[in-house]
Design a protein that fits this description.
151 residues, two-stranded antiparallel sheet, 5 helices, 2 strands, membrane, Tripartite tricarboxylate transporter TctB family protein, transmembrane helix
Length: 151
Amino acid sequence: MILRLNTDIAAGAVGLVFAAVLWLPREEIGRLSIIFPRAILVLLCLIAVALIVKGVIRPSGRQVEITGSPRRLFTVIAGFFLWWGLVEVLGFLVTTLVAFFALTWYLARVETRVTWQRLLRWTPVILGLVIVFYLTFKEVLNVRLPTGLLF
């Protein structure tokens, strides 16, 4: 699919919508835990507004070619929303592990058949990524992550 659009305005609008969605549930987070996410959201809003202003002042229409399956794209987007909804129920660690395994399997099966042995070979990398994310948020950034059934 080939689209012709002003990518600056489109990216700025997506950034503002994304920031608005993340800004709304912020009252549940503790006062000290919100400092870093709030700073990132403010920075995201500033960049998004700057992109929109640039797109209006100096418009540049570009042809954007979206390759691949739109069904696969929307399935991955739905998966991220499902992860976002389940993170409060199952906890960050469990939900993220399941999401990474599901995403890896789903995207890898486009190219080839995915066997259990192949998925087991990817397990150390997936575990390492999730643990690095978990420890970075929990220990380095001091963000209180949702806990659920196990963690």
